[in-house]
Amino acid sequence: MLLVTASARLRDEVARVAAAAGVDVSLLEVHDAGHIPEGSVVVLGSDAAARLPRLAADVIVAGFPDESTLLWEQAAAASAHRVAVLPEAAGWLAEYLSRSRHGDARGTVVAVLGTNGGLGCSTLAGWLAADAAARGRTTLLVDTDQLGGGLEAGLGWEQAEGLRWPDLAGVRGSVNPGQLRASLPAAHGFSLLGWGRSGGAVDIPRQAVTEVMTGAAAGFDLVIVDAGRVRAEAGSWLAVADRAVLLMPAGARGIAAAAAAAGFLRPVPTSAVVRGPLPAGMDEDLAAEQAGVELAGYLPRLRGMAAAEDRGRLLEKAAHRSVRRLLRRLGPAVSPAVPPAVSPAVTRAG
Fold first, then answer.
1. Which pTM does this prediction carry?
2. Structural domain boundaries in the chain
3. What CATH fold (topology level) applies to the domain 107-334?
4. Which CATH superfamily does the domain covering 2-100 fall into?
5. What's the pLDDT tens digit per position in 330-343?
6. At 107, phi and psi to the nearest 5?
7. Distance between CA atoms of 304 and 25, rounded to whole angstroms?
8. DSSP 297-337
9. In 62, 235, 286, 301, which residue has its Cα 20 to 30 A from 23's Cα atom?
10. CA gyration radius for the chain?
11. 113-159 per-position pLDDT tens digit
């Protein structure tokens, strides 16, 4: 991991985070930034971000609370998709740097969340997984709500053989990505990690969640996490997310909830799917603008969804014209084409 800053305070803080993540830090001068190899992980201080050209690297702008507004402005100017306001974001940054050690072997983790329950997060997550699989991506759909009735029922997968979350509760240490992928139920071109019929709540330790999700990201091109309603307990799932898709209503309360949710989700890059129906005088662009989030698409209310879920036929509803339109826009955004191999990350500057 490369750090570009002249701030001794930021150097010390990032060094502590990197040590916790088990990642080596190499300090780079601003005038040497043009030599950064494509695919490197680069942390830019506020003193450096505005002075650098756009980099073909994984760029994180980092700083402290007294400059948080400036950091977001500089991130936009530097095409950085992540901002780490320290020390609050130290845990997230440590987790992100730790996962970066997998390099180009790691897939993308996308969390699908809603501002409130009943918006259709599970359905959207399933559609995205099926869409990515149809475009040739190895894809895993993860159900995080063990008390929600199960994605398996809505997809018609109750009898599918393979591991569920209760089987992985005792995980200690790294999970073999190949073994995990081979052990999960699969159909419609993608795999599913759900809860099965456990007969009651099962406590999955946070460390087990992290190790399983890290192994999943190393074993699949794309991991779609059905994270349900935005809530404080979602932290263990969001720690491994590269981006979030927020499902939001277009009314005044939905817009206010989406604005609050976007703040909670930071520094995970977040875009919104606006859920119909639209109130008079409102459209999806205006709803996303008022919530302060990027618009990812619009999903109207569809007839027959409850019956499709009861019959395990949710994926069939993706054939609807409005859903196809949404997936044409959102699908490639959450699972872009696999880039060509890049040079190994630099371990020593200069």
1. 0.69
2. 2-100, 107-334
3. Rossmann fold (3.40.50)
4. Response regulator (3.40.50.2300)
5. 998 887 655 443 33
6. -85, -175
7. 54
8. EEE---TTHHHHHHTT-GGGGGGSHHHHHHHHHHHHHHSPP
9. 235
10. 20
11. 999 888 889 899 999 999 999 999 999 999 988 776 667 888 888 88
* Cβ partners under 8 Å of residue 225, min gap 6: 109, 110, 111, 112, 125, 142, 144, 213, 237, 241
d(CA 323, CA 173): 40
Contact (CB, 8 A) for 229 and 114: yes
DSSP secondary structure letters along 223-236: EEEEEEE--GGGHH
pLDDT in tens, 148-204: 666 788 888 888 889 999 999 888 777 888 889 999 999 889 999 998 876 567 888
Could you identify the residue written with the tokens 């190899």? 37
Residue type, 24: D
35 vs 346, more confident? 35
Asked whether 196 and 166 are in contact (CB, 8 A), the reply is: yes
Structure tokens at 195: 């809860």
State both tokens at 105: 């072997």
User: Residue 208 corresponds to which amino acid?
Assistant: A
